[in-house]
Specification:
This protein is of the alpha+beta class. It is built from nine helices and 22 strands. The strands form five sheets. The chain has a six-stranded mixed sheet with strand order 7-8-9-3-10-11, sandwiched between helices. β13 and β14 form a beta hairpin. It is elongated.
């Protein structure tokens, strides 16, 4: 099982330009809305036609602009699951599951495939019901059973949980575990949720503005991001422009400080990132210790997020702006700190207006050049 994609499609204000390959694995596409994740899947399925390039699935050429090959969508044997499952309302559960099976399959074999997939997803007792008579979770299981029954060459799932609340999402995720265990081939999984991608995907491709910025394992993305997009999508709250100062030091114009780094600084460094929960409270001045003011706080169940302003900013850096002047510039000049409320001793939780010292561990920063 394999997938090779190298395509370009141009729009007036956006260009999709992706080049990647995958084997028998689950490859995640992680990125913000409108970055080209779903468009890539639609090109593979034949719903959209690239301007140029090549798409090959399991040795079959689906699209080749130079050779003028463009296989019709119904002949591509792909399975694409959308957010709303797209079940046929006038067909029963059994009929929906069998809808994607080729007409060349004998009736007896067809019934056997449908029965097997109904059993796999615990739908035997619902075979005669219609989609409107099912819960959201049951509808999803029908859609997944239909995907496997079609014996597709590739599975593609487009943000299947985006409209669900956290509890229902947790329950329905187990349906996908059954799907992935049963399918031995390439699975493409579109998401904008890093935790969801980490749970399901063997590798993750970070997509930004129509391009794949980096591809690696979940561990690579979380601990060794290679691009600004990767830093942000991995959940890192603090990402700021950086300028090379020396082999182990960068200057951060928006924060108005310099930071020492354990790793060697690349000469073309563009940004530094540090996770909010890596920050540490300090007793006073020292390497990577900064005098801060708590400008805002917000609480969740177990964490307090603290917005810290640098009190000793370099005078030659960008002037400090207020939230009233420009909210985004204001936030970009601050450092986000996440404090574990369960571990903080009584009276140690930072409060708005506090002045304190904070340490940025030099071995916990990310440096990227794109």
């Amino acid at each position: 099982m394999s997938l090779e994609v190298n395509v370009r499609k141009r729009f007036s204000s956006f260009t999709l330009d992706v080049d990647f390959s995958a084997e028998a694995e689950t490859l995640g596409f992680l990125g913000a809305s409108g970055c080209g994740k779903s468009l890539t899947m639609r090109c593979i399925a034949g719903i959209e036609t690239p301007d140029e390039g090549r798409i090959v699935v399991n040795g079959q050429v689906f699209f080749d602009s130079e050779r003028r090959i463009n296989v019709k969508p119904q002949q591509r044997k792909t399975a694409l699951l959308f957010q709303n499952y797209m079940l046929f309302p006038n067909l029963t559960v059994a009929e929906n599951v069998g809808a994607g099976i080729g007409r060349d399959v004998a009736r007896g074999d067809r019934d056997g495939i449908v029965a097997a997939e109904l059993k796999r997803f615990g739908l035997e007792s619902f075979d005669g019901r219609y989609p409107a008579q099912l819960s959201g979770g049951q509808q999803q299981r029908v859609a997944l059973a239909r995907m496997l029954a079609a014996r597709p060459g590739i599975l593609m799932l487009d943000e299947p949980f985006s409209a669900l609340d956290a509890h229902l999402k947790g329950v329905l995720e187990q349906n996908l575990v059954s799907l992935f265990e049963a399918y031995d081939g390439t699975v493409l999984y579109v998401s904008h949720d890093i935790d969801e991608a980490l749970r399901f995907c063997d590798r993750i491709a970070v997509v930004e503005a129509g391009r794949i910025m980096e591809t690696g394992t979940g561990d690579d993305l979380v601990n060794r991001p290679q691009s600004l997009a990767g830093v942000k999508l991995s959940g890192c709250k603090n990402a700021t422009p950086a300028v090379f100062a020396d082999s182990h030091r960068v200057r951060l114009p928006k924060w108005g400080v310099e930071v020492e780094t354990a790793q060697e600084v690349p000469g073309d460094v563009t940004h530094l990132g540090v996770r909010a929960f890596f920050l540490e409270r300090a007793d006073g001045p020292g390497p990577n210790c900064y005098r801060m003011r708590v400008d805002r706080i917000s609480d969740s169940r177990f964490d307090r997020t603290v917005l810290l302003g640098f009190l000793d900013r370099a005078q030659d850096e960008a002037p400090t702006v207020s939230a009233e002047e420009d909210e985004m510039k204001y936030l970009h000049q601050h450092l986000f700190w996440r404090v574990d409320k369960l571990r903080a001793a009584p009276g140690e939780l930072p409060c708005e207006g506090d002045e304190l010292w904070v340490h940025i561990p030099p071995d916990k920063v990310y440096l990227v050049s794109r």
